[in-house]
Amino acid sequence: xxxxxxxxxxxxxxxxxxxxxxxxxxxxxxxxxxxxxxxxxxxxxxxxxxxxxxxxxxxxxxxxxxxxxxxxxxxxxxxxxxxxxxxxxxxxxxxxxxxxxxxxxxxxxxxxxxxxxxxxxxxxxxxxxxxxxxxxx
Length: 137
Description:
The protein is elongated and about 70 Å long. It has one domain (6-79, 86-131). The protein has helices at residues 10-28, 107-131, and strands at 33-40, 45-52, 55-62, 72-78, 92-97, 100-106. The chain starts with 9 loop residues before the first helix and ends in a 6-residue tail after the last helix. A 6-stranded antiparallel β-sheet has the order 4-1-2-3-6-5. It has 137 residues and is an alpha+beta fold. Helix 1 (10-28) packs antiparallel against helix 2.
């Protein structure tokens, strides 16, 4: 029995779905900025995720002791004020100072981090199925 064609593989279609979602997020992040934040007043901290200008940023900001942090979950979107972003920003950046930190990943780098192992898996699977055909008794 010959191996199944590649267009019948679930791994191909699931990978295409993930790749489509990441590509859509990359293109959409240039038109709309999304900000998601979770404030923890007991720790005087705010954890946030920002999607803007082709990047995903995760950060933690500490509030000074006399300041009372808002509590709860915040989510809002806005349109960028300066519509001149770079299509290929740096792959990643990390910032740390005074208890605050932020880590930024570019969408193109996320796509590359997904695409290389996914294509390697598909090639490995195709090669394995080609060299080890299943025999029907």
